[in-house]
Amino acid sequence: MRLIQALVPDDCRDAVLAVLDDERIDYVLTREESNGDNSAIVQFPLPTQAVDRVLSELRDAGLSDDYTVIGSVETAQTSNIEELEDKFVKGGDEDDSIATDEIRTKALGMNPSPVTYYAMTVLSAIVATAGLLLDSPAIVVGSMVIAPQVGSAMTSSVGLVLNDRHMIIDGLRSQILGLGVAIVSATIFGWALKSAQFIPPSLNVVTVNQISQRISPGFLSVAVGLCAGAAGALGLATALPVSLVGVMIAAALIPAAAAVGIGLAWGPPVIALGAFVLLVVNTVSINAAGGGVLYILGYRPVEGTTIRKAAPTLVAAVVLLAALSGSGLVMTKQMQTENAVNEEVQSVLEQDRYQQLELVKIQVEFDDMGVLDNSQEITVVVRRPTNEPYPQLSERFASEIAGRLDGQTIVEVEFTESQRSTVRT
After folding, report:
1. CA 14, 19, 24, 27 torsion: positive or negative?
2. Beta strands 408-418 and 375-385, pairing class
3. Percent of the chain's residues with pLDDT above 90
């Protein structure tokens, strides 16, 4: 429920009150004499879903935005409030979207102070780094809960659809600096753990499941970013709590930033590059999906926006498109590599001599297209019967996969053993 207070000049008072009467809205009109004119203050309660429509009608009637306040109230008791609720809430005359005036304020209100924002980012990055190295999903989830990235992401998305230059700049700047701080924090923390021998320096971080999931971006990574941005926009625009949505957005960003730091601390560099591409893809996807959903919900810049005035949105859109195109090209190459490896591994395992083997997992190192490393490392995990050797399996995989990839192909096979017994009575 919202309480609207607006300053109504004398020359449009009759038209404004006629709109309220037509919509059967109960209002109170108070004489305003502080400006020395004949203005008045009108205040009235409305269901949240009705605010945008009613304010639009009032503006058409001549109401200006010199003084309009939208406040939250727990409940309202007026003659026609139940009729308004039946019309706008239960009847579905309007969707759940909050007013354009309100969404801007709500997005800005989600941002903590700079000190709090960067402090919480550092803490969340450190917790995420610990969770990744410990291979603990619970700790990684904990890092998402305290991450503050939802506010900056939603600020830039709202700025895009409302063509608000300051919101676009503030949102994108906060995201870039915040994720940069997260990467630096994770790198320093990882290097300290490695130097102090809390984590063995010889640890192959690629073998850690929580890390390996974040160094090879693919289609599912894009899906996570798009869904996170869309969910954030829906939560913001429909007056629903966005705390859980904030966790979703952080899930797409903070662990990836921590993986970049781990890659820089441990190496090889291809690990950091793969995680960085994932981070860029998710960041762009969140902003693009958030702005797209808000646009679909009907949020637009103020009337009279020209091409020149729309320049901030156009520039931001071009930047996001360029970032998505560049990272998307790299990600497409990675997807092609993974598909080729999956097909060849499956083809080998379908041969009669390998019928007793069961595929458990395939881990494909990030394909940097030879920028940092001309070799391609692949780990295949299979389950075999106890004491059954397959000494030539890695060579067979390597020979088949090498025909599909460029450069040197390195295949490592890990076996897990199983036993099966059948007893008949």
Report:
1. negative
2. parallel
3. 20
* DSSP codes, 388-399: ---TTHHHHHHH
**Phi-psi domain of 29 (left: phi exceeds 0; alpha: psi -120 through 50; beta: other):** beta
Q: Which among 183, 178, 186 has a CA at the least distance from the CA of 151?
A: 178
Q: What is the pLDDT of residues 187-225, one digit of tens each?
A: 999 999 988 888 887 778 877 888 888 887 777 777 888
Alpha helices in 196-218 (DSSP H): 209-212
Q: How many CB atoms lie within 10 A of CB 100?
A: 21
Report DSSP letters for 407-419, one per residue. SEEEEEEEEEEE-
Residues 6+ apart with CB under 8 A from 192: none
Contact at 8 Å (CB) between 125 and 186?
yes
pTM reported for the whole predicted model: 0.75
Span 96-112, average pLDDT: 78
**Cβ-based burial of 386 (10 A; exposed 0-12, middle 13-18, buried ≥19):** exposed
- Enter the tokens of residue 218: 């693919």
Task: Tell me the C-alpha distance between 181 and 261, whole Å.
Answer: 10
**C-alpha dihedral sign at 63, 67, 68, 73:** negative
> What are phi and psi for residue 31, nearest 5 degrees?
-65, 135
> Is residue 150 within 8 Å of residue 112, measured between CB atoms?
no
What 3-state DSSP class applies to 351? coil
> In the structure encoding, which two tokens stand for residue 186, read together?
């994770």
Please give the residue that has the higher pLDDT: either 173 or 220. 173
Average pLDDT over residues 313-331: 73
98 closest CA partner among 157, 35, 135, 50: 50
Torsion of the alpha carbons at 27, 29, 32 and 37, rounded to the nearest 10: 110
CA–centroid distance for 151 within its chain: 11
Per-residue confidence (pLDDT) for residue 391, from 0 to 100: 84
So what's the pLDDT on residue 307?
47
pLDDT band at 306 (very low <50, low <70, confident <90, very high): very low
DSSP letter (8 states) at residue 357? -
- Mean per-residue pLDDT over the chain, rounded: 83
